[in-house]
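Aim 2 progress. For glycine dehydrogenase (aminomethyl-transferring), the working sequence is reproduced below.
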Amino acid sequence: MMLNNKGRPTQPVAVDNGEISIETFTGNMGLRLESPLIFEQGMPGRIGVDMADPRPVKVRLGGLERKGPIGLPDLSEPQVLRHFVRLSRQNYAIDAGFYPLGSCTMKHNPRINEKVARLAGLGDLHPLQPTSTVQGALELIDDLAHWLKTITGMPAVAMSPAAGAHGELCGVMAIRAAHEANGESRTRILVPESAHGTNPATAALCGYKVEAVPARKDGRMDLEAFAEKLGPDVAGVMLTNPNTCGLFETDVKKIADMVHEVGGYFYCDGANLNAILGRVRPGDLGVDAMHINLHKTFSTPHGGGGPGAGPVVLSDALAPFAPIPYVVHNDSGFDLVEQAEGQAQKSFGRMKGFHGQMGMFIRALAYMQSHGADGLRQIAENAVLNANYVRVGLNDKLHSPFDGICMHEALFDDSTLKGTGVTTLDLAKAMIDEGYHPMTMYFPLVVHGAMLIEPTESESRQTLDEFIGAMRHLLDRAAAGDTDYFLGAPHYAPRRRLDETAAARNPVLRYTPPAPTEGEETAFSAAS
Ligand SMILES: *Cc1c(COP(=O)(O)O)cnc(C)c1O
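Predicted structure tokens for this construct:
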């Protein structure tokens, strides 16, 4: 293995199973270029920009100013540029290939959205501009709100939440405020076992005791268990529909009625709206609050902590408690309600600095308008068709834990891998070698070794056929006993198996320079 002078391996692929053994002097492999840590590339005195020394200023930090150097590496501009371009080329992205991550709706992001979001007058808005100078932007937010209310059949929408989980927080805070306004302090929230982890986390953050409701054999929530848990201390239920097993909760209206009967509210996790867009209106199902992940259903790049937006549609019962600020339209044009007084006196307050994720609003509205009502409906139809195409294409090799047609994602368990020595994780690693981002794994928790595949509507039949072919090949290889291949995968990725637990639990986030040694300069000068 090649090591640089800091002891880091620089060789990207040390294929050690005897098949191939490649060693290059640089550690690069063709177009796959290694990049040492940027700190390792630094060289004292090297600079990117030549600027005059700043004029001395009076220190007003009361002794808090830094005494030593900041500890950043000294680099030239091309070095910095190459470093980040090299890193960016190791990214997997929806723009690079098929990205079937279940529950995440990684669909194509139309370029028109990006173009519109960058238009002068939109891209350079400032949230502190006087409202008289941003009438168009407020109208855009209002327009988007109108589309969202129409699509969901709900009377109100809170636009400010910044992501799905933030939207859940908004919805549950509205539910809590509504109970409090009624003089009640309810203590429990019911959440099905298959729920996305953010649901119980949100309920707990709002001070509720979370109670899990088991699933039936067919993957839907067990109504009898639900009825047993209901009571006057239940603040509400948080249900995902379609649920995280990729199934439509067929008893959803009954669930709504049951929770309303005990005075609770129905929170619907709407992250999977992509599956029912234009086909079902959550407002008709008795929903009181539901977040919409604009970054999933209405495209816009997301993942890796990237920007999102999670507007929350609200029923008449919860609308008065919506967070500020929000846009209103009156005789003199568009305005913002920024104080919890007057018409907003019941608002539970503010949950974000400004009015919402404007860039996401623009992209989502562009997406809706470019598709139109018929196009939005077709999205849901094709998303469900594609998921079922994958399900049927793999069903003789992978077992579906729940019978019948799925919605927008196909769920499999690991029962056909039993006895092969290959786990869901190993299969996923081999998918990386085939050039695919793996599906969602081990979620939902109710299914053993779960594999949740969401192709989305934007993939062609050719892409799906190729993916199904690759999966079938891997599953045959596992069945034939080629276990070592899987245990060693990924063989061709820039990095191979990492200790994922250690990386998550003990991340090394700070660079500690090694003690200087005599005559040493940089990684590459040492090698020359
Ligand atoms: C993505 C997702 C969330 C959370 O949304 P974020 O925008 O990532 O916070 C919640 N529930 C479900 C079912 C999801 O798929």
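Residues 521-528 have pLDDT under 50 and may be disordered. This observation will guide construct design in the next reporting period.
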